[in-house]
Design goal:
The complex is a heterodimer of chains A (113) and B (111).
Chain A: E1 4-7, E2 10-13, E3 19-25, E4 31-37, E5 43-51, E6 54-57, E7 64-66, E8 76-78, E9 87-94, E10 103-104, E11 108-112
Parallel strand pairs in A: 2-11
Antiparallel strand pairs in A: 1-3, 3-8, 4-5, 4-9, 5-6, 7-8, 9-10, 9-11
Chain B: E1 5-7, E2 10-14, E3 19-24, E4 30-38, E5 45-50, E6 56-59, E7 62-67, E8 72-77, E9 86-94, E10 99-101, E11 105-110
Parallel strand pairs in B: 2-11
Antiparallel strand pairs in B: 1-3, 3-8, 4-5, 4-9, 6-7, 7-8, 9-10, 9-11
Classes of the chains: A mainly beta (113), B mainly beta (111).
Chain lengths: 113, 111
């Protein structure tokens, strides 16, 4: 199993550009999450999904959108990139609810200039 | 606003020392408390998930306790080794699916 994979590893965007961060898991997990990690801060939950076709906002959803058309994939979309979205983004998945550990991807480092 | 606090923020210990960290979380609407180990340039990896008040978990030299009534969890490392150097994160899972992570305790074990 590859676990949770994320692409790209690094990306530089200009203000106003858009992009999609890809996340795929091959563990057949129902629950998937997107986090951002800023220096000196904990991981902040952006969006999560409890199954295909179901998504919900986390703590910091503004400026992002997600979709979950399959169990495996949970892409994160930035429509109009802003410098405040410069961060490291982690995708994670878990087999069931909050009583199960999360498995994290390797992260995507995004810089918006 | 829910808040999860970890202390200390960082510490240095000598190889062979035992150490412990604290995670404080809201005592209401509790579902689970997670501990993760996060090495530099890698992804967080789960150590423990605890759901019951009084839970104690152990994995090798690392153990954790949970007190949901007062809202804290301790992580203990016995006989620290250089390979234990990492950031240790805790995450509070509430009754509404959301996870709140602390900012972590950065441990450096000196050989």
């Amino acid at each position: 199993n590859a676990g949770v994979t994320q692409t790209p590893k690094f990306r530089i965007l200009k203000i106003g550009q858009s992009m999609t961060l890809q996340c795929t898991q091959d563990m057949n997990h129902n629950y998937m999450y997107w986090y951002r990690q800023d220096p000196g801060m904990g991981l902040k939950l952006i969006y999560y999904s409890v199954g295909a076709g179901i998504t919900d906002k986390g703590e910091v959803p503004n400026g992002y959108n997600v979709s979950r058309s399959t169990t495996e994939d949970f892409p994160l979309r930035l429509e109009l990139a802003a410098p405040s979205q410069t961060s490291v983004y982690f995708c994670a998945s878990s087999p069931r609810d909050r009583g199960n550990e999360q498995f994290f991807g390797p992260g995507t480092r995004l810089t918006v200039l | 606003i829910l808040n999860v606090e970890q202390s200390p923020q960082s510490l240095h210990v000598q190889e062979g020392d035992s150490t412990n960290f604290t995670c404080s979380f809201p005592s209401s609407n509790f579902y689970a408390l997670h501990w993760y180990r996060w090495e530099t340039a890698k992804s967080p990896e789960a150590l423990f998930v605890m759901t019951l008040n009084g839970d104690e978990k152990k994995k090798g030299r690392i153990s954790a306790t949970l007190n949901t009534k007062e809202g804290y969890s301790y992580l203990y490392i016995k006989g620290s080794q250089p390979e234990d150097s990492a950031t240790y994160l805790c995450a509070f899972a509430s009754g509404t699916y959301k996870y709140i992570f602390g900012t972590g305790t950065r441990l450096k074990v000196l050989a």
